[in-house]
Structure formats: structure tokens, C-alpha cells
Amino acid sequence: MRSTAAELEKVPSRRERVRAATIKEIKATAMGMLREHGADLRFADIAREMGMTAPALYRYFADRDQLLSALMVDGFAEMSTQLTAALEATEPDDLAGWIRAAAVSYRNFAKADPARFSLLFGLPNPGFGQHNQHTSGPAAGATMATLEQSLRAVIDKGQLAHPLIRYVGPQWATEAGTAQAADGARIPADAYQALLHFLAAVHGFACLETFDHLHWISDQARDELFEAQIELLQLTTGALPPPSDPDRP
Amino acid sequence: MRSTAAELEKVPSRRERVRAATIKEIKATAMGMLREHGADLRFADIAREMGMTAPALYRYFADRDQLLSALMVDGFAEMSTQLTAALEATEPDDLAGWIRAAAVSYRNFAKADPARFSLLFGLPNPGFGQHNQHTSGPAAGATMATLEQSLRAVIDKGQLAHPLIRYVGPQWATEAGTAQAADGARIPADAYQALLHFLAAVHGFACLETFDHLHWISDQARDELFEAQIELLQLTTGALPPPSDPDRP
DNA sequence: CGTCCTTCGTTACGAGGCTTCACGTTTGTG
DNA sequence: CACAAACGTGAAGCCTCGTAACGAAGGACG
Q1: What is the mean pLDDT of residues B134-160?
Q2: Which pTM value belongs to this model?
Q3: Chain A residue closest to B119 (CA)?
Q4: Gap between the Cα atoms of B207 and B230, Å rounded
Q5: Across the A/B interface, how many CB contacts are shorter than 8 Å?
Q6: What CA–CA distance (Å, rounded) separates A65 from B49?
Q7: Measured between CA atoms, how close is B193 to chain A, in angstroms?
Q8: Phi and psi dihedrals of B26, rounded to 5?
Q9: Other C-beta atoms within 10 Å of B243: how many?
Q10: Beta carbons of A172 and B235 less than 8 Å apart
Q11: Would you tell me how many other CB atoms lie within 10 Å of the CB of residue A62?
Q12: For chain B, what is the largest distance between any 2 Cα atoms, rounded to a whole number of angstroms?
């Protein structure tokens, strides 16, 4: 920090590289511990697994909370990456495909690594303090923004023309129209409503499943129910026409 | 325990009464601490607030986990009570009213006491061990059963005749038809699917809201969006007729 | 009324985790 | 080679959980 020349150096020095690698290894080891032993993460364990002692970790993370925060930031970033990858593989005017891809990606992220999902979305973390709010909060917002921007791209194609319900209250209509000025674009209120509906349904399913509140349903049945959930979301957003139901008058 | 006569005594002795009161006070104080200081619950703090010392609490709860478990059991019981009360106030053949009452009650439970909701549904509690699974698990299941049985009563009135989607996979259909033999009744698979869809949407909304993932929406707008969510659930279960949408072909 | 026994609460204490500190050691640099 | 920065270690302090031993309160029963 003393010389401005050092600040402008773009190529990281050897020290910086090995330091970055160590940080990465610490985080990887910590995530492994979280996966195995649950939420009670012991600094000494991480260090021992790396062939070090506990105090050495404080050269890299000032605090146990900061390590958890870093894991959360990485987790949200990875989630955004996976969502983005899944959504970019869909056709830009295929709202039904978008919904399926987003829902499946969201759920798979939770299923593939329940410990990480718990870390991200199970709020009462041990020692959850102010610090986490200020570092992981924006990261969580970025994940939300990923969904939002991607959905907006689809919506701009006019694919949300016939949602099943487009009721929105006056307060929400004004907020949705104005609040997102940061991105430079306005969002139709009903589109944003659709996003929130989608998010609530998929997030709720993922939470229930990950936190073991659906243990009375077999894995296969859960898969089928999730499929039905997806189809329902496609219907309610008007991405699919309603099914021809002979019972329906 | 030595005399069988004492076991059969129905009226609790004075000691038992004061002990029960103390347990109640401990739990109340602990919940207060949870509400104020978050998840890091210190035994010494609880004791001090009660004018006692920490080891005294071990006369009433063998473990910090057992205290948390007791709080969870009470929380789920209270949630069941509130849900039951809200649902009993609805007409028995009014599915739309049932959905509104259940959703509002569920969300209000979360909003009224976010700390308790976090305790119940934010899984990664500090020191979450095997014990919690075996004590609070059934309590959580009881809450689910409350919703299920109440919904079944409504469904038995034939109100779920025209759900928007009644797709269910073969695995789920057989499970839903057979698994609930414990209650002596079978449940139509599509009804159970509707329950799960309802649960995912409402639980997801409550989680997002409680865990502050919707901080970018004002309170009023959130209320409006939740209203829209309810209406959507009413539509997808066939409780309400689809709106007359001039844009719809 | 006096004695006993159970329960309750306290002080004292040990175990274990987080975090800091002082000190050597390694490593890159001029 | 000399120097400085970063790194890692052992020792130590602090805090919390949980246990143990002891004293006090209070109901049960002669």
C-alpha cells in the first residue's frame, strides 16, 4: 500500500499466489467440515486437516465469522454461476423452458450440497452477527439479481403476455416500476410478481426438502411432485396453455 | 416411583407445580433471549435474568440442546394451535377460505415472532444433534398433520374437484394412496399434491420474508404480493374460477 | 415437634473452543 | 549477504458448557 506502483501491478506476485491458494484451501477444507460435521465448525479441526495449527488461520481470516462469511459469498457466487449457466442454455423466448431450467437448477443446487444450501439460507448461524449482514447480504442480492435480470430478458420478449393472474396492488406497482432504476430499466409489476411467485414456490420446496420437512415422501415421489410444481408455475405465468381437462366445464 | 399409588395421583403435588412453573419461566426467558440476541443463547444469561446461577438450570434441562428442543416442540405446538384456530373459523366447504386462512395464519406466525420461526425452520442450529431430530421431528410432523387433516376435511367435501393441474406421477400416486394408512384414511394424490404446492409457496414466502431475502420490497408491497400469492393458490386449486382476462384468447 | 429425605441452588472446578501474543522460521528482495 | 515482510508455532487468557460436592429449604412421617 505504500507504493502506488505496487498497487497497479496486475500480475500477482508469487507470495500473493500462494496466499490465495492457501485461502482457497482453507475454504475448501472448511466446506468439507461443514458437509461432514454440520454447523459446528472448529478452527482447530480445519487447521489439523491442513497440517497446521489453529492460530495460523488468523493470518488469513480475522475471525471465525469472516470465514463463514467468505463461504457464504462463495456459495452465492457459485449459485449465481450455476443459475446463469442453466439459463443461458435456454432459448431466449422460451419462458416455459426458462422456468424449468431455473427451477431445476435452483433445486439441484440445494440437493447437490445441502450443507452449503443450509449455510446460505438457514439463517440462525452460530454467531450470526452484523458482519455477515454486510458481506453476505450483497452476495445474496446478487443471486437474486441473476434471476431477475435473466427473467427480464425473457420477459422483454413478451412471453409473459398471459399470466393467469396479474393482480398487483398500487404500492407494489409503483415500487416495481421505480425501485430498479439502478439497473437502468423498469420492470413491469406483474413480471416481478411472477418472479416472486416463482421464487417462493421453488425456494420453499428446496427448503422443505433440504431441511428434511418432507421426509415422509420418497425421493421418486418428490421428483414427481417437483415436476408438477414446475408445470404449475409454467401454467400460472401463461407460459403454457391450460390443460384440456374433461372435468372442467 | 416407589409406590404405584403415587403414580396414579392425578393432582400434581405442590413441588410438581412449582417445578413446572420454573420450567415454563426458563423457556419463556430463553425465548426472550432468542428474540433479543439471536441464536447464541447463553445459559448464564438465562439464569441471571431469573435471579439464579447457570448450573441450577441443569436441574431442569440436562443439556443446552434439550432446552432448544423443548422450545422447538412448544413452537410447533403453538403453530399447530394457531393454524387450527384459524382453520376452524372457516366454513367447512370453503376451500378458497381455507387457503386464505391457512396462508395468512402461517405467514403471521412467522411475522409475529421471527426468532421462533427461525428456531423452527432454520435448520442449522448451533449444536444441532441427533437429539433434536428425535424430539422436535415428531412435533414438526404434527404441525404438518394439522394442515393435512384440516385440508382433508375440506377436500372430502369435494371442493378440489377442478384443480388447474392434477398431474401426479405413478410413484406419488401410490404413495399418497397408501402411506397415510396410519390415520385410517386414504388421500387422493392430487389433493396431497395441492397441499404440497400450497405449503411450498407459503413456506417459501415466509422463509424469504423472515430471513430478510426480500428486504428490497417494502412492507406494504409485500402484503400486496402475498395477497396475489393467495389468490393464485386459490386459482390453481380450482377454489376460484379463473379471472376473466380480456387478453386471453 | 423432631427427623429424614428429596429437591433445589450455590460455589468450585475441569474441558474445550476462540483469539491474542511473543517468538522463531521461511521466503522474497535489494 | 543483509533485510524485511509474511508465515507458523507454542503458550496463555478468556469465555462457555457441563460436572461435582456441598449446604439450604421444605414437605412427609414418626
Answers
A1: 75
A2: 0.89
A3: A124
A4: 16
A5: 205
A6: 27
A7: 7
A8: -60, -45
A9: 13
A10: no
A11: 11
A12: 79
